[in-house]
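Sequence in, structure out.
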Amino acid sequence: MPCNECVVEAELRFAAKAPKKGTIYIKPDMVNQPPHYKVGGIETIDYLQAKLSPEEYRGYLRGNALKYLSRAGHKDNTAQDYSKAIWYIERLLSVL
């Protein structure tokens, strides 16, 4: 389920018949910083890294990369799934 910020943003984009001149709509970055991942003031990935052992954390990153690679092409946004897989792989490489 999308977070409230995502829902509000979507409502703003679709509710308006014609955007007013000078109106800027900011779309959340759903790959690098989804707004719903920072509820509570800390990014979920940072919390997980703090709580898991280094081995567990690497497994978590690898598992998520595999998840996004496996489902790419089977959901709405294939490019976003590949981008998320790359994000997790890059994060994994940074902790090896």
